[in-house]
Write a structure and sequence with these properties.
Blueprint (H helix, E strand, L loop, with lengths): L1 H26 L13 H12 L30 H5 L1 E5 L3 E6 L4 E11 L8 E5 L6 E7 L13 E2 L4 E3 L6 E8 L6 E10 L4 E10 L4 E13 L18 E4 L7 E3 L1 H6 L2 E6 L3 E5 L2 E6 L5 E8 L5 E8 L2 E4 L3 E12 L2 H7 L13 H18 L2 H15 L1 H16 L1 H11 L3 H15 L7 H20 L23 H15 L7 H18 L4 H28 L1
Parallel strand pairs: 1-7
Antiparallel strand pairs: 1-2, 2-3, 3-4, 5-11, 6-8, 8-9, 9-10, 10-20, 11-18, 11-19, 12-13, 12-15, 14-17, 15-16, 16-20, 17-18
Helix pairs in contact: 1-11, 1-13, 6-7, 6-11, 7-14, 8-14, 9-10, 11-14, 12-13, 12-14
């Protein structure tokens, strides 16, 4: 009996502790509110004003990537003299994206996700993923002997319009940037290809060698940002936190993570065919993806003595003969962690939806959730249906546990007599109690197994709620307008505590008075922990407890009928 209570108590306490601090870390601070800009000249002016308030870090040669087996360095970062930002900015708007492209370098300087508001009560204000306040941008260019990006600066492109918009009837939008006044005899057009409903943008260079014998260039794509927490996602100093850092494919693993501290200690380099390199934050990511059939050189590092990180890839040098045209480029993803879409883009990229060490359980849980959601079109009801399914699958084990607890309750008077008989002689009392268990066919650990089996499900569902962007801002009913955050009125945690108390009342009381008091306090402690849990997780545990009570009543009455 003592072992049973200790196992249950420790299991619940550890789970509650880990999840409480994890949830506190994820949502301990309020979100920073970001303003939305219309696609107009005013948007450009507002963007310039925001940039003026962003601290500037000096550019050094450490900012630039180096081609493999090439001693020449070529600039691969935006010059931070503000002139580049303020000279030329163009805006591009699709049904899901709004981006600002700087004509100096042709980099994506800002990107907002139109389908994902920063705050649930402000749907008009989209989340800004690539954010100048984090010095967060997507850079690309041409390296090599005849590349356009040099240590002395970046090229300035020209375009026909300051604003581009994807019409729903077109399906695809090509934004061309032309390079004029080249001194290397090359005609260069940089194109951004946007598609309806897609967060993946193709970035390609059309390079024509008009009159030279030959030209050698290589494409690079690079993400550059500081080491600060994403705006609106700052964390406190306690507990665990959602991963913020670099993810890439290596020679041995489809998914490998690197924290900023890892990159500060050692830079990352790898050459392979296909692959990807991404920067992750809660629910969202940006990623450069080269041609999956070509070899590329991936890298990630922290710049010397600066809180700036660069990660990206370079292609191999391509030789363009006289009179020939070559197309070089890659794809850049900036959007939500949608596993299905990411798996289509590159092998291993879908693993950035990181369910942790319980991924093997979390993935089927999410599959079940999406199936039920397709039936009821409500994630809260989907969680309820999933809970019923899990309890049904575990019922044979639960029934055995309930039978064991029913037998233990019947033995309570006999245990009291044994305790009175042996007094303070705990050894003799334990021996007599074990003999009684053996004689009556009772198992003091019988009640532990179902609860312990629930713990992995509980943890896996937690990570499912944390990592699945589909559940971000998902409403349920009445006051529950977001299942991924805490219940604002604490109704669900209180109901969960009551249900846990009822479940406890149906179990035999521990013989040790101190242990009995601690066990009675457990519902209060767990209710306190659950106050900060996402409402979807509390809903799962509430329904689980209610079903446990109903199952236990059914089993107990069945035993009473059979004697």
């Amino acid at each position: 009996m003592d072992i049973q209570r200790i196992v249950i108590f420790i299991g619940l306490a550890i789970t509650g502790y880990l999840l409480a601090f994890n949830w506190q870390q994820d949502y301990g601070n309020g979100s920073t509110r970001l303003a939305d800009e219309a696609t107009s000249p005013q948007q450009i002016e507002d963007f310039q004003d925001r940039l003026a308030a962003v601290p500037v870090a000096p550019v050094t040669e450490d900012d630039i990537p180096t081609l493999v087996n090439d001693n020449q360095k070529s600039a691969a970062v935006l010059k931070e003299d503000r002139q580049g930002f303020q000279d030329q900015l163009i805006t591009v708007k699709t049904d899901v994206l709004k981006v600002s492209i700087n004509l100096l370098g042709g980099d994506i300087a800002e990107a907002s996700l139109l389908k994902y508001p920063t705050l649930i009560d402000e749907p008009e204000n989209p989340l800004t993923l690539l954010d100048p306040r984090n010095l967060y941008s997507a850079q690309s260019g041409l390296l090599g002997p005849d590349g356009t990006d040099k240590p002395g600066g970046r090229p300035t492109y020209i375009t026909d319009r300051r604003q581009y918009s994807l019409a729903s009837s077109d399906g695809e939008l090509v934004v061309p940037l032309r390079l004029q006044d080249t001194d290397n005899g090359l005609n260069i057009v940089k194109e951004f290809v946007f598609r309806e409903g897609d967060y993946l943008v193709d970035v390609r260079y059309r390079i024509r060698n008009a009159d030279r014998d030959s030209a050698k260039v290589a494409f690079y794509g690079q993400i550059r940002r500081n080491g600060q927490e994403p705006i609106g996602q700052e964390s406190n100093s306690m507990g665990m936190q959602p991963f913020v850092g670099v993810a890439t494919r290596t020679e041995d693993d489809l998914y490998q993570k690197y924290t900023p501290d890892d990159l500060e200690e050692e830079s990352f380099k790898v050459s392979l065919t296909g692959g990807y390199i991404a920067f992750l934050q809660h629910y969202f990511l940006s990623a450069w993806v080269p041609d999956q059939d070509s070899a590329s050189n991936f890298y990630a590092r922290k710049l010397k003595d600066r809180d700036i990180y660069v990660l990206g890839f370079t292609s191999d040098l391509v030789e363009i003969a006289s009179g020939e045209t070559e197309v070089l480029g890659g794809s850049f993803y900036m959007g939500p962690k949608n596993m299905e879409r990411l798996d289509e883009i590159a092998e291993g990229l879908g693993l950035t939806v990181d369910y942790g060490f319980l991924w093997w359980l979390a993935q089927p849980l999410f599959t079940g959730l999406t199936f039920f959601h397709s039936l009821v079109n409500n994630w809260g009801y989907a969680i309820i249906l999933l809970t019923i399914l899990v309890k049904t699958l575990l019922y044979p084990l639960s029934a055995a546990s309930f039978k064991s607890m029913a037998k233990m309750r019947k033995l309570q008077p006999e245990m009291a007599r044994l305790k009175e008989r042996f007094g303070d002689d705990k050894q003799k009392f334990s021996q007599a109690m074990m003999e009684m268990y053996k004689k009556e066919g009772a198992n003091p650990l019988g009640g532990c197994l179902p609860i312990l089996l629930q713990m992995p499900v509980f943890l896996a569902l937690y990570w499912t709620l944390m990592e699945s962007v589909e559940l971000r801002h998902a409403p349920f009913i009445l006051w529950i307008n977001d299942l991924s955050v805490m219940d604002p009125y604490f109704v669900l945690p209180i109901l969960m505590g009551i249900s846990m108390y009822l479940t406890q009342m149906m179990q035999p009381e521990p013989p040790d008075p101190i242990q009995a008091k601690v066990f009675k306090f457990l519902p209060v402690m767990m209710t306190f922990f659950f106050l900060w849990f996402p409402a979807g997780l509390v809903l799962y545990w509430l329904i689980n407890n209610i079903l446990s009570v109903l199952q236990q009543l059914y089993v107990t009455r069945s035993l009473e009928k059979t004697g």
